[in-house]
Fold this protein.
Amino acid sequence: MPNATLSTSTVPARPISGQIITFALVGVVNTATYYGLYLLFLRYLPYLAAHVIAFTLSMIGSFFLNAKFTYRIRPTWRKFLLFPLTNATNFVITTVGVYVIVDMLHVGSKFAPLMASAAAIPVTFVVSRWVMLPKAEAA
């Protein structure tokens, strides 16, 4: 038990190519979770409220999935509290995108979040690595 605090991970870090593939797979799961929640909340709430709530809940799940499978790290409160930074750009891009698609382009609100999210994925990966990995590994 005394040595348990010395180890930060029991599984070795994976190469960046493996991280990218796993990040993408986690992203698919996260997007499906988000979209299912969005459609559920859309039945009872305005589309922007449904988007914000679904986004927040799926981001929590994304943190734990990425910690375990993508970066193979132990989740900590510090990383959990910093993790929303990884999605700040994603949130802004998707929220503005949803608004533009629905209110300006008059495309239905059902598929707007899926269309808006594609542009934010690369930025989210870079910021995610910066937050989740030790500075030497992330560089």
